[in-house]
Amino acid sequence: MAYIMVDTETDGPIPGDYSMISFGAVLVNEKMDQTFYGRLRPISEKFIPEALAVSGHSREETLTFDDPEKVMRDFAVWIQEVCKKDRPVFISDNNGFDWMFICWYFHHFTGTNPFGFSSQNLGSLYKGLVKDTFQTFKHLRKTAHTHHPVDDAKGNAEALLTLKKEYGLKIKL
Length: 173
What we know:
GO terms for molecular function: nucleic acid binding. The chain contains six helices and five strands; from the N terminus they run βββαααβαβαα.
């Protein structure tokens, strides 16, 4: 299996009605040198200014971003290239949110999702390892959480690597 850590930035709470503005992905391994960054033109007239502000982009700027279909097709090609013969596994720090957008965009724009029908949650994984549902993994990040999705995906990938090295997580990366 090839773990792909993903982070999304959006202009609202759900796909379809609102848009995924950008996303980042990193193949989780020691080098973390294989990343993907996509900036997507909005698919809806609706947006929540406060949600969009988190991304650091203005509405006018997002209107110049790339065609969502092209970005999702490029992302699918990237996944195929970095995973080679391994099955890609989607993981994020908030998979309920990030997965919802990535899955919807893949199915809507390409007709299929290379990740299949499931995802994994880094936060839940950490809580299980430390046996405490009140704990958070975020102190394990090395890369600052900037809301640039590649930075955020890298920080989360670093945390996953720490779970393997220092917490004894059995995972093949």
